[in-house]
Prior knowledge:
Number of strands of chain A: 0
Oligomer: heterodimer
Strand content of chain B: 15-25%
Structural class of chain B: alpha+beta
Distance between the termini of chain A: 25 Å
CATH architecture of the domain at 568-701 in chain B: Orthogonal Bundle
Strand content of chain A: under 5%
Amino acid sequence: MKMQKKGAKYVLISTALVALLVGICGFLLPWWGFMVVLFGLGTFLFSNASGAFWVSFGGGAIMWGGVSLYYYLGESGQLLAERLRVMMGLPHGVFLVLLPAFLGGTLAGIASLTGHYGAKVCQRKKSSEACEK
Amino acid sequence: MEKLKFGICATLSLTLVILGNRRIGMYPPIGKFFSPFWGYWQNVERTKYPPALEKKILGLKDRVEVYFDKNLVPHIFAQNEEDAYFMQGYITAYHRLWQMEFQTRVVAGELAEVLGEKALKFDIRQRRFGFLRAAKKSLKIFFQNPDAKRILLAYTAGVNAYIRSLRPHQYPLEYKIFDYAPRLWSPLRSALVLKYMDWLLTLPFYNQREIELSKVLKKFGAKVANQIFPTSYPNPAPVIPLSVSWNFSPSLPKAPSSVFVPSSVITQPLSELGIGSNNWAFSGKKTATGAPLLASDPHLPLTLPSIWYELQMHTPFWNVYGVSLPGSPFVIIGFNEHSAWAMTNAQTDVADWYELEFKDNSYKEYKYGKKWRKVKILHELIRVRGGKSRKLTIHLSHYGPVIYKLKGTSPPKGLALRWVGYEGGEEVLALWKLNRARHYKDYRKALKHYSSPAQNFLFATQDGDIGISHYGRFPIRWPDQGKFISNGSDPTYEWKGFIPHPHLPHVRNPKEGFVFSVNQPPVGKGYPYFLTGYYEPYRHKRLKTLMESIQKATLEDCLRLQEDTKNLHAASIMPALLKTLEKKLMSHEEQKVYQILRKWDCHDRVNSIASTVFDKWWRLFHKEVWEDEFGKKIHFLPTKLFTVNLALTSPNSLWFDDIRTEERENFSQIAWRSFQKTVKALKKQLGPIGDSWQWGKARKIHIPHIAKLPGFGQKGIEMGGNLHELKTCTQKFSTSWRMIVSLENPVKAWGIYPGGQSGNPASAFYDNGIKDWKKGKLRRLRFFQKLPTNLKGIAAVWRLSPLPKEDGGQR
């Protein structure tokens, strides 16, 4: 059932999938809703921990950063970024794009990773139960 | 091992969600705030102007069209009155929701509920003053009139229709920063907005003044206190011209034989007096068009979003344009198809402090005449975000709330406040009628309902009438009553009713051909009642001279008056000050500064170096004269006018002697000493004499955000003008809505305010007016007589219609 988990193509597709999910969840669920979905995704999609984290990190960062960048470049984005930059004491307005990208990536990565390890714990339990029998 | 890793990751995930959902200290909840789907990015404007809209709204009775012009001013076309006010509420909330709610929290003392512990002290103060209680009382009176009730409810329904249409990601930005949600509006909130103005325009003056003057009384005695703080000055140009005579002679209360000296005073610091206003009108005889010309220029603390919201409301029955207060229905200052009106603050004292003597430390009974009277005890709860709610006990005397308990007094004493603002009036009805007024008699009828904050109501009509009324509820007092803290145990100190409406100062079409008010004393000596207050002594002289010199007034004349920077305070003292510098051995810099001052025409222009020097010099001089005697505990020094007169008439007065030195100083020495200090201080602050010394550059204006969020205000605005000139402008307050109306047929009008229609800091219309405002430019206001057929200059159209009740139920 599990797809071939190797190669650039896989990384690309799964990153895009994560990004898409993060985006859909963003519109439909509370701001943390995507983490629940990625937790689920993490339970089966990734073959190893670093894959789970980084692919999701990439997907999350692309979506949060991308949407931020879209607004930043839009009608009044830089005006807002400048005000918030001063409010938060940041060196440049573009941090209002970079910070969400980093945060979105981190949250996505950790959610997937949690799912990934969660699945492992369950598998271990199942297989040890099977051995006992 | 996997278990451990899972545990760590799961904990981390949960922690991040919880932390990211919460405000930590001053920081917004990072997860929610940085999420581009929920946070600040959802507040960017996707298009410059609001998109066109066709919508059904629950609560409307009929079709409504809204035309937004290129300055984002809504022109509301409704078929009936309720819909007009409904839409005023809806659109004001659309642009200013956070501001309107926040301001009511400020005045009511409900900030800690959303900002936490750090706002508690402020809330406690507001609760002690009891503005919420006062607003409730006002509302009760408003609701006694079915028209007032109908309008307040329609406005409320409009605001709430907008709030209900919002989803959390659409909340205004400040809600996201402070992390709370808007609550539904109610008529009480509108009453609070009006109470906010009441507070702003009356209490900061008397609240402080009587307490500070009582300190002077205690230190120097009644004779000296009355000498250095006289109640009346020679007054060549009161609001009501001296030519008006009064044909009534009421019996007035008699003053007690001795002045009451309070036993102890509190040492609260003085807040800077920072409001005032100009308005004037020329009669048709004195204008180029032959129609009256009215100008309004209220000075208020500058903030972003701006205190005003501009709009037009049109119904088949009336048509009004002007500025409104976000949160209150009606146009406050504006015009309709027949008339125009404007207010300046009356400045007249409408509040007195009473010292009460209590029976014991429970503060439950106070002496009144020969008896003990019980206070009413109220309990209030202040909710504190992230902390324990605070219970507050309020002691209510028959005068008003006991706001301060005086420490170290035996028997225990306290200060109670009597304030006209606590009594409530029918302001809503007054504004409603004023908005629809056609003729002079309508305006006078409207004012009958008005109580507080007292204002100079200026009015002009297409019929050719001009007039001004010093209007509000003024207590009847003996001369100088309420100048110091009053004796609350002695019934003699009670207010003896209020000046009846027909006796309030008022003039219609005076022979001068113009009327004006610039916070000067309302009346000359002949007026039978005693009115006192904190009045400005300089602007009225200048304005009267200028208005007299104009024969055929035009828009340009009015603009010139609004931009006039002649500083009469400087002009009155400058020759005497300069004389003290003659033959002095000066350093190179001092010599240079002296030469600059000698050439100065006393105009505070944006590039004037002399203005910077004079401003600093006066401040230091004034302090040098008085601070030695007054010490640091009295925060209210004798006025500029008194100090100037003293310097001109008695330069060897003992007040000029610095009691801290052995030498016996006079005016000349203090002036010279403070001049040297001025040059030194300015050099240190601004560098060598040059462009950096220019008034605009040395005194930059900062318009802060209402909640003082850094980056949300506008800094570094360079402008001319100062406190005592027609172009009134200090660092904190200035002209807040400039409007000029020519009462031709049809009415023509121009206006500007230092802000923008949108309260959204991400909008280009948040502060777009500042650019023109600081140059003294006005915009032509588009006043539609009927539904616009030509969409030129229209940025967006909203077509709204009622949503039938049954559909509404399903939402």
